[in-house]
Amino acid sequence: MEQPKIIIAIDGFSSCGKSTIAKQLSVALGYKYIDSGAMYRAITLYFLRHSVGFYHHGSVVDALQHVNLSFEYNPDRQASDILLNEENVSLEIREMPVSNKVSEVAAIKEVRLFAVEQQQKMGIMKGIVMDGRDIGTVVFPQAELKVFMTADPAVRVLRRFHELYEKNNQITIDEVRHNLELRDYIDSTREESPLKRAKDAILLDNSNLTPEEQLNKVLGWVQQRTGNLQAAEIG
Question: Whole-model pTM?
Answer without folding.
Answer: 0.82
